[in-house]
Structures are given as structure tokens and as C-alpha cells.
């Protein structure tokens, strides 16, 4: 349950302290009563953001584990499970930042896009669950897509998982293909799109400049100047 809820989240240390977690033994700890005060949930989060939790029956002071057993059903255990899950979701929403992609560079770019254009990635394909599309809110057209691919798809003979962002440059494609870390668009029309490897060869601002161009191209005549 914890792994599923927090798999695309990144711990925010400032938020977790404001929420009420206490740093103890190099871990962040939080407790809350559930089930009308008869049970207590103890949540522990490591500094790396790994979340674990336990539930205790306050009448017996014994640990309650039935909510984790798939073969045990019933109204009571389901209520315990749901109240525990509600706490986890509350912590995820209030103590963690959304982490959409594998690499920190990609997630920083997502944050920049969201802050500037109020757009979040859409994950449209079951076969490619980590491909995130960014759509212009005014025209509904795509202006960027982040994908995880093997490096050999972009640079022959090189291996290893990378993330790329595809952006539309139209008449500027040839000009930018002369620059470092920018390649013909992977899986897109290479006359109009380029692929940028999301590593430290280009700064975040350099990448955002190209995303800005793509965003403006996706506007057509709809977006206000």
C-alpha cells in the first residue's frame, strides 16, 4: 500500500515538519488515532522518503496486522484499512511533491512547465506508462512529451536508460540540431521535432527556452501574445 501511494512522490522536508512529523533517531515519526480513538497509527519516514507504518490496538497495546492480510475480509478490517489508507494519502498530498519521472532533471523541468503554463503531464498509454504528454490548455495541442528510452534509440551503440523531451521547433530544427545534446525527434516528425536528452549537458533554462518555442508554436492564433 505504501509503495503504491508514494511511488511517484518526493519527500519535502519543510512540508513534513509543518505537517507534524518529529525527527527522532534520524527518522521522521508521526502518530494519529483512528477507529474512534481505539487504534493508533504510527508512521515512520526515512530521510530518503521511504514510508512504513504500523497500527496498534490501544486496549491491548498489541500490533494489529490483519489489515495487511489479503485473505482476511470483513467490515471491521476494511474500515481499519481505509482509515489507514486515508492517512497515507493525506501525508502524500501534504508532505511530498509529485514525482512524475525517473530522473531529477525531468522532474525539475515538469515543475518549471507547471509553474509557467499550469500544465501537468498526461500519461496516455498503458504500454508506455512513463511517457508524459504536455498539452497546451488553450489549443489542446501537444507541445512536449517526456519519454524514458534506451540511449541507443538516440545515440547508436550507446546503452542505458535515459529520459528525453521531444519539442516542436519547425523551421528552427536544423539550427538547433547543431547544438549539443539535441537530436532528431524520436518517434516524431523529424522535420518539426527534436529530442533533448535530459541530463546536465544543457541547463534547465536552456531546455525551457526550447519548450517555450514549442509552446508558442502549439498556440497557433489562439494564445494571447
Primary descriptors:
30% helix; alpha+beta; five-stranded antiparallel sheet; Aspartate Aminotransferase, domain 1
Describe it.
30% of the residues lie in helices and 29% in strands. With 225 residues, it is α+β, with helices and mostly antiparallel strands. The protein folds into two domains: 2-98, no CATH class; 104-219, Aspartate Aminotransferase, domain 1 (Alpha-Beta Complex), CATH 3.90.1150. The strands form three sheets. It has a six-stranded antiparallel beta sheet with strand order 8-9-10-11-13-12. It has a five-stranded antiparallel beta sheet with strand order 2-3-4-5-6. The chain has a two-stranded antiparallel ribbon with strand order 1-7. The model has no long low-confidence stretch (mean pLDDT 93).
CATH arch. level architecture of the largest domain: Alpha-Beta Complex
The main β sheet shows up as: 6 strands, antiparallel
Poorly predicted runs of 5 or more residues:
none
- Integer tally of domains: 2
Number of helical segments?
A: 6
Q: What is the strand content?
A: 25-35%
Number of strands: 13
Termini, distance in Å? 46 Å
Strand-pairing-aware structural class: alpha+beta
What fold name goes in the CATH topology slot of the largest domain? Aspartate Aminotransferase, domain 1
Q: Helical amount among residues, as a percent range? A: 25-40%
CATH class (first level) name of the largest domain: Alpha Beta
What does the radius of gyration come to?
23 Å
Rounded mean pLDDT is: 93
Biggest β-sheet: strands ordered side by side in the sheet: 8-9-10-11-13-12
Q: How are helices and strands ordered from N to C?
A: HEHEEEEEHEHEEEEHEEH
Choose one word for the global shape.
elongated
Amino acid at each position: 500500500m505504501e509503495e503504491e501511494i508514494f511511488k511517484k512522490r518526493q519527500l519535502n522536508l519543510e512540508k513534513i515538519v509543518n505537517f507534524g512529523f518529529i525527527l527522532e533517531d534520524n527518522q521522521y515519526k508521526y502518530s494519529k488515532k483512528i477507529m474512534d480513538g481505539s487504534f493508533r497509527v504510527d508512521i515512520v519516514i526515512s530521510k530518503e522518503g521511504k514510508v512504513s507504518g504500523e497500527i496498534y490496538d490501544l486496549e491491548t497495546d498489541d500490533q494489529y496486522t490483519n489489515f495487511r492480510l489479503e485473505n482476511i475480509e470483513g467490515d471491521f478490517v476494511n474500515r481499519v484499512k481505509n482509515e489507514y489508507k486515508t492517512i497515507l494519502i493525506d501525508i502524500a498530498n501534504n508532505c511530498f511533491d509529485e514525482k512524475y519521472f525517473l530522473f531529477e532533471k525531468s522532474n525539475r523541468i515538469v515543475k518549471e512547465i507547471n509553474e509557467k503554463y499550469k500544465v501537468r503531464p498526461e500519461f496516455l498509454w498503458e504500454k508506455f506508462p512513463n511517457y508524459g504528454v504536455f498539452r497546451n490548455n488553450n489549443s489542446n495541442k501537444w507541445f512536449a512529451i517526456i519519454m524514458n528510452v534506451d540511449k541507443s534509440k538516440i545515440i547508436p551503440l550507446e546503452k542505458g536508460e535515459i529520459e528525453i523531451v521531444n519539442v516542436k521547433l519547425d523551421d528552427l530544427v536544423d539550427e538547433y540540431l547543431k547544438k549539443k545534446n539535441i537530436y532528431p525527434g524520436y518517434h516524431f516528425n523529424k522535420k518539426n521535432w527534436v529530442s533533448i536528452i535530459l541530463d546536465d549537458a544543457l541547463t534547465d533554462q536552456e531546455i525551457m527556452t526550447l519548450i517555450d518555442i514549442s509552446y508558442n508554436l502549439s498556440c497557433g492564433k489562439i494564445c494571447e501574445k
